[in-house]
Design brief:
Chain A is 65% helix and 3% strand. Chain A is mainly alpha-helical and 623 residues long. In chain A, the strands form two sheets. Chain A has a three-stranded mixed sheet, with helices on one face. In chain A, helix 4 packs across helix 16, helix 9 runs antiparallel to helix 10 and helix 14 runs antiparallel to helix 16. With 282 residues, chain B is an alpha+beta fold. Chain B is 38% helix and 20% strand. In chain B, helix 1 packs antiparallel against helix 2.
Chain lengths: 623, 282
């Protein structure tokens, strides 16, 4: 199968035949069947009934995942080396690059970006179905069981999108460019982190064939122990996604710490790279907790464990502690990279230095540190005791201080700037607006006396959509409009971009602002039906939600057409100073056609200081 | 921020004041909250209103800078020159930091800690009445232990106005949560443990007149979660006594209305509930 590209000498694979992703599916299926048969065999030997769905799925999945990885290219590019045999590189050209174990961070960034836009659109479509059910009281399209299933799938998919899309796409593609590196520190781990995702998608799809699950994305026990088998697929999918996060996080942290170009001292690190560094640290430190909580759930479900069964001495609330020990830091994993995108874009389109760079970096570090000690604010109604409540109220309200520093940097940067309102800038400014509402309404939830009314109502739904969509997803699109030219070499259409922006911004606010009122007035969350007095506002919210959904059609159209036929971008269409703009669009295989050297401030707009960086070519030229 | 920027500072300040005034007018002039019918709820609403009042100037400040900057300094087309190199302003940044620390500390102490302690004190009060509520997928069982009255899946929960009532909450299956919007407080009902919440109803009312009077399950508990609510009727002491005496006699009419027994246990794949209209019940 190995062929040699003339001139390079190194053997490569993947240029012909079936794309490796298909072979991965085949090998994965073989692995799954092998694991399943093994389980059945062991059950028969031990005298159990031969078939039981959940044990067969768990063991089958472990083998299937191994088969998948080997098939998708780990075998030739990596595993053969463990056996002392020669490994080869996966380096096909064209579209085939994206369908196998390619280790270039730019390929992986595109893989992540496209995959997660698709997942985002599917999960968004599910939200359309949810709003259709809620457009009036009573059964509208699928009733309570169907609603709970769709709501749960929407929730988990969107959480995975929010956690992964920005670091996956831009952390991979842009961050190594920003620090002047040739690639990530561990290219194979990088590819590994991406190829965890197709199994996650397959699990989520498969879960729907066994009835789905109905616990929302949080999977609270005991419900998650006693409900349908779809819950098992939820747990396996979430754990697999977590593995991807950990693997990616090791890579991000190591890359930022060790791979920076000469001259890039910590004070010259671009703010987006700072946000990716701390996103990585959070993922690395906390993701194991959610895997623990879900593994305990699997034990309780599959082999009769009793971690959470009170009859056998288990403790249901324990799950929530472990789950939120990860899942609160996780919301900062969702938001920090987008705040990095925000503060990266504002100086470029204001033509001013990033205001209070040190304060902004301090804000990112402060948010990260405090995020470790706020988890129980999700549990103020579980009887955790007055002293504990006071402690978590203190830490939670304290997190408003570092968050405020991000706003300080934002408003200070646009003040007296030359504001160039291109689409990326519009998205960035919208983040300031949305995240302000999201942040302030979060203070209400941190306040125990107010929270006992608001907890588990649509106030919470509105609040977290204002942070995670209003900042996180708006940041994803800000990043796409900003870096698409670098990644594809072509500009997105400005007119379609502005239509997308205004529809999304208005649709978003009209959808989620009324939800605060709904929550205050007795609409609890995760319900398929509600009191008749809330019908008018719900109808309005649904219609606004459909409008919001329609905005993405303009984005899809724009992205597909522009990728093929957009105006050529050139190296630096926005006149930015950071290193990713000092190379071609898209960059060459090793990113720079020379040695980058960092010589100054990344945001020195309007100053006489030296350029942020220069790229010295072998022939003596400079970029 | 430089002498030539003085007019901009003043204009932004004026905009801030105007936005703050408008915001406070809206916050103080409108009631966004549903009917309040409990003493403990006053603490909750007080905290909510105070937080709204504090929020307005904070939000107004950021919005004033945002709106003013976009209107004042937007340029048509690619900017020909850079803006002024304001990389930081020590006084402004420090002020911002310390004001935000001060605000967070203020909110933590009041309404945070003060409100929490007030609610905790209320919870320790000797109750006039104890009601045991057990969440079951997907209804509430009610027990008045002091009166020996046990109601399985009753059509309504009747409570006396003016009495301090301690609700002891638990569950037989999954986690449910106690929430009567008119009473404000929320507390989880968790299998294997008993959590309490103390409420003193101050107003009479009923679900038929106002849907804030309902015991709504507020923790996702499976297929029947949305409809797991029990109409609440707050009546005077005498009427409550009569009702309790009657309730002790035997089953009451209207129970079919809330029965959800035909929905199965949620384990099956197609057990979707029938079309439902909430207002028709009770």
């Amino acid at each position: 199968m190995a062929t040699t590209i003339s001139g390079t000498g190194a053997p490569t694979i993947g240029s012909r035949g079936l794309p490796f992703a298909f072979r991965g599916l085949l090998w994965g299926a073989i692995g799954f069947l092998g694991g399943a048969l093994l389980t059945v065999g062991v059950r028969v030997l031990l005298g159990y009934p031969a078939f039981s769905l959940e044990p067969v799925v768990v063991i089958g999945y472990v083998f299937g995942l191994s088969g998948w990885f080997l098939g998708v290219g780990v075998w030739e590019t990596w595993a053969k080396g463990w056996l002392g045999r020669e490994t080869v590189a996966y380096k096909p050209d064209g579209w085939r690059r994206y369908f196998g174990f390619h280790q270039d961070h730019k390929v992986i960034g595109i893989q992540y970006g496209v995959t997660f836009i698709v997942l985002f659109l599917i999960a968004g479509l599910l939200a359309m179905f949810m709003r259709a059910e809620l457009i009036e009281t009573g059964r509208t399209i699928f009733g309570p069981a169907g609603y709970n299933r769709v709501m749960s799938l929407h929730g988990l998919m969107m959480v995975l999108v929010a956690v992964t899309a920005v670091p996956g796409a831009f952390g991979n593609y842009i961050m190594p460019l920003q620090i002047g590196a040739e690639d990530m520190a561990f290219p194979r781990l990088n590819a590994l982190s991406y190829w965890f995702w197709p199994p996650v998608a397959i699990l989520l799809l498969a879960s729907q064939f066994v009835g789905g699950w109905d616990t929302g994305w949080t999977g609270y026990v005991p419900l998650a122990v006693v409900n349908r088998p779809g819950q098992l697929f939820y747990a396996l999918a979430f754990i697999t996604a977590g593995l991807s996060s950990v693997v990616a996080a090791v890579n991000f942290v190591t890359t930022v710490v060790k791979m920076r170009a000469p001259g890039m001292t910590w004070r010259r690190v671009p703010i987006f790279t700072w946000s990716i560094l701390f996103t990585g640290i959070l993922s690395l430190l906390f993701t194991q907790a959610v895997a623990v909580a879900l593994a305990m759930t699997i034990f309780d479900r599959v082999v009769g464990g009793a971690f959470f069964d009170p009859v056998l001495g288990g403790l249901p609330v324990l799950y929530q502690h472990i789950f939120w020990f990860y899942s609160h830091p996780a919301v900062y994993v969702m938001v920090l990279p987008s705040l990095g995108v925000l503060l990266e874009i504002l100086p470029v389109f204001s033509r001013k230095p990033l205001f209070g760079y040190k304060w902004a970096v301090g804000g990112i570090i402060g948010i990260s540190a405090l995020s470790a000690v706020v988890w129980a604010h999700h549990m103020f109604t579980t009887d955790i005791g007055v002293t504990t409540k006071i402690g978590f109220m203190l830490t939670t309200e304290a997190i408003s201080v570092p968050t405020g520093l991000v706003f300080l940097a934002a408003v200070g940067t646009i003040w007296r700037g030359k504001l160039w309102l291109k689409t990326p800038m519009l998205f960035a400014l919208a983040i300031v607006f949305n995240f302000l509402i999201g942040g302030v309404t979060g203070v209400f939830l941190s306040d125990v006396p107010a929270d006992v009314q608001l907890q588990d109502t649509f106030w919470v739904v509105a609040h977290f959509h204002y942070t995670i969509v209003g900042a996180g997803i708006f940041g994803l699109f800000a990043g796409i409009y900003y870096w698409f030219p670098k990644m594809t070499g072509r500009m997105l259409d400005e007119r379609l971009g502005k239509i997308h922006f205004w529809m999304m911004f208005l649709g978003f606010n009209l959808t989620f602002l009324p939800m605060f009122w709904l929550g205050l007035n007795g609409m609890n969350r995760r319900i398929a039906d509600y009191q008749p007095s809330l019908e008018g506002v719900n109808t309005f919210v649904s219609l606004a939600g459909f409008f919001l959904g329609a905005s993405f059609l303009f984005f899809i159209w724009n992205a597909v057409v522009s990728w093929r036929k957009g105006a050529p971008a050139g190296d630096n269409p926005w006149g930015a100073r950071t290193l990713e703009w000092l190379t071609t669009s898209p960059p060459p295989e090793l990113n720079f056609d020379g040695e980058p050297e960092v010589t100054g401030d990344p945001y020195g707009y309007g100053t006489d200081g030296p350029a942020h960086a220069v790229v010295r070519t072998e022939t003596g030229g400079e970029r | 921020m430089g002498g030539d920027g003085r007019r901009d500072l003043v204009a932004t300040g004026v905009l801030w004041v105007i936005l703050t005034a408008l915001g406070e007018w809206a916050v103080l002039g409108t009631n966004m909250l549903p009917t309040l019918a409990s003493r403990q709820g006053e603490e909750v609403d007080g905290a909510f209103r105070l937080l709204m009042i504090y929020s307005v100037p904070v939000m107004a400040f950021v919005l004033a800078v945002l709106f003013y900057s976009v209107i004042r300094w937007r340029v048509e087309g690619r900017p020909g020159e850079d803006g002024p190199p304001l990389a930081d302003h020590r006084g402004f940044s420090r002020t911002w930091f310390f004001v935000s620390v001060g605000l967070a500390a203020l909110l933590f102490i009041h309404p945070g800690v003060t409100g929490l302690l007030a609610l905790a004190r209320d919870a320790e009060e000797e109750p006039d009445l104890v009601v045991e509520l057990t969440g079951v997928q997907w209804h509430w069982d009610v027990n008045f232990p002091e009166h020996g009255v046990t109601l399985e899946n009753p059509p309504e929960l009747v409570l006396p106005v003016g009495s301090t009532i301690r609700f002891d909450l638990t569950s037989t299956d999954v986690i449910h949560a106690f929430w009567v919007p008119a009473f404000r407080l929320k507390q989880d009902a968790i299998p294997g443990q008993t959590n309490s919440v103390t409420i003193t109803p101050l107003e009479t009312g009923s679900y038929e007149e106002d849907d804030a009077f309902r015991l709504q399950c507020a923790e996702l508990c499976g297929t029947g979660h949305a409809r797991m609510f029990l109409p609440v009727r707050v009546v005077d002491e005498a009427e409550f006594g009569e009702w309790l005496a009657g309730a002790g006699m035997g089953p009451m009419e209207g129970m079919e209305g809330m029965d959800m027994g035909d929905e199965g246990d949620g384990m099956g794949m197609g057990d979707e509930g029938d079309g439902m209209k909430m207002g028709d019940e009770g």
